[in-house]
């Protein structure tokens, strides 16, 4: 006949045992050490992935700041270009170089070709 298993004296786990780390010496831990190792590995993976995500977020924020700076530089350069292209500014620059504006606009000369070979019409 098989002996009935006798319950072992199990001491209740207290908060002080957890803080001191005495719970690691209990029989339950030694029986399920693979499970506890898996939990610790998963915790470390979670911490590592969170750290990597934070690094990526910092990189993205830096790139956003740089893109905003470049957008403002572009807007400033375009406004300066528009200011330079204004006719009043061009006339001032021309006066500095002692050039005069034209009284009449230049005429456009069109040449018509009669044939495909490039012969000029009569």
Write a structural description.
Helices cover 61% and strands 0% of the residues. The chain is an all-alpha fold and 122 residues long. The longest helix is centred in the middle third of the chain and has 53 residues, at 33-85. It is rod-shaped. The mean pLDDT is 82.
What order do the helices and strands follow? HHHH
The percent range for helix content is: 55-70%
Kindly report how far apart the N and C termini lie: 131 Å
Class by SSE composition: mainly alpha
Q: Strand fraction band?
A: under 5%
Largest sheet: none
Radius of gyration using CA atoms only: 43 Å
Give the count of helical stretches.
Answer: 4
Average pLDDT, rounded to a whole number, is 82
Stretches with pLDDT under 50, minimum 5 residues: none
The total count of strands amounts to 0
Instruction: Choose one word for the global shape.
Output: rod-shaped
């Amino acid at each position: 006949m098989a002996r009935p298993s006798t319950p072992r004296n199990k001491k209740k786990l207290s908060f002080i045992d957890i803080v001191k780390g005495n719970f690691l010496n209990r029989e339950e831990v030694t029986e399920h050490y693979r499970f506890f190792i898996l939990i610790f590995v998963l915790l470390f993976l979670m911490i590592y992935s969170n750290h990597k995500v934070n690094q990526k977020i910092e990189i993205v924020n830096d790139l956003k700041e740089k893109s905003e700076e470049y957008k403002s530089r572009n807007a400033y350069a375009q406004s300066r270009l528009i200011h330079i292209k204004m006719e009043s500014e061009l006339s001032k620059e021309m006066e500095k170089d002692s050039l005069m504006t034209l009284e009449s606009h230049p005429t456009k000369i069109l040449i018509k070709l009669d044939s495909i070979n490039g012969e000029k019409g009569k």
